[in-house]
């Protein structure tokens, strides 16, 4: 931990003391957010005889950006912690909450081509496959290299990553096991933009280290999952339409073939001070009884909290290799003041694949409410409440927990994100 902090401090000092002869701009921003949550059935059905949970989670992030004629540097350091998780008089942070979130450099090779290398956020379109995951205090990053092309209304990104947990002299086995933690990743992303429309195409290849043994401790080759598809949006008179379609194939694991798909379509319309929205998303799943092939789509590295209900019952660290999901939803966003709005959203959930014993496909209905108020410059308040009305069938995908208990979730979040320092360092002509 001491070595990691030393590296971060050194990077910080390098940026702050960068040669002013070459520098153009230096900018430092802060991102502090604290969120109180009350959980009574968040992410899973509330168990019998349990007490609800309540806590305050906080992120404190410092962003440092440097821009020159053909060079960009960006460093973000952060601390993510729960109020009270460290004893007050410890000489060091005892919860290992301090980390380097981003550290990348981008070089402009010519008018159209550039390369970006290092720890970075990768985010595209509606963030369904690649997203920043900003709702989670820790966010999501990739240690990757990108080759980027930009010309007029067309863009192309080619990216790749190769993951190892330490230096070594022999072998390339990747020992870090986690939910869709890849050993290798390559992708190509293309996007074309018109006046009010756009369309993109993504091909993503991810390789995951296989393990065998009683404790799943022996590396045994690599399985590759391929994801390809498109996202689009366009207007139809006063209605804005957006949608996506993706297909996954390859290997779900070392011994199981994969064939899965995702489709979504949403239409929004704004009149006066109300935005109306209606949409559907279908993510294929695997039958609970007698399946020989994995047909479960998983959105991998997206901001999955945005989709399928804010209570995170689906695809937020869960619901992998499951029965999939059909999500029909409607939403309304009310402008309640000059700097405030209220989101009301309802979801109707059903299983895409067959449940055991031919159980009813209907899983439940979720209602989400989110109120947003700008308090002052660079300060905003969010207040949310969600309620899940789960069916009997929800128990079949949530470990057999009873659906008889109340399942709700409430939260209050304060976000403070000011610019702390900006300076223009002109080229020294003396």
The ordered string of helix (H) and strand (E) elements is HEEEEEEEEEEEEEEEEEHEE
Q: What is the class in the CATH system?
A: Mainly Beta
Count of discrete alpha- or pi-helical segments spanning 4 or more residues: 2
The portion of residues forming beta strands comes to over 45%
Q: Biggest sheet, open or closed, and with what strands and sense? A: 18 strands, antiparallel, barrel
Average pLDDT over all residues: 92
Q: What's the domain count?
A: 1
Helix-and-strand structural type: mainly beta
What is the third-level CATH name, the topology? Porin
Distance between the termini: 44 Å
Beta strands, count: 19
**Percentage of helical residues?**
under 10%
- Spans with pLDDT under 50 lasting ≥5 residues? none
CATH architecture: Beta Barrel
Question: What is the C-alpha radius of gyration, as a whole number of Å?
Answer: 23 Å
Give the CA-based shape.
Answer: globular
Walk me through this protein's architecture.
The protein has 430 residues and is mainly β. It has a single domain, classed as Porin, CATH 2.40.160.100. The protein is 4% helix and 53% strand. The chain contains 2 helices and 19 strands. It has an 18-stranded antiparallel beta barrel. Strand 10 and strand 11 (239-251) form a beta hairpin. The mean pLDDT is 92.
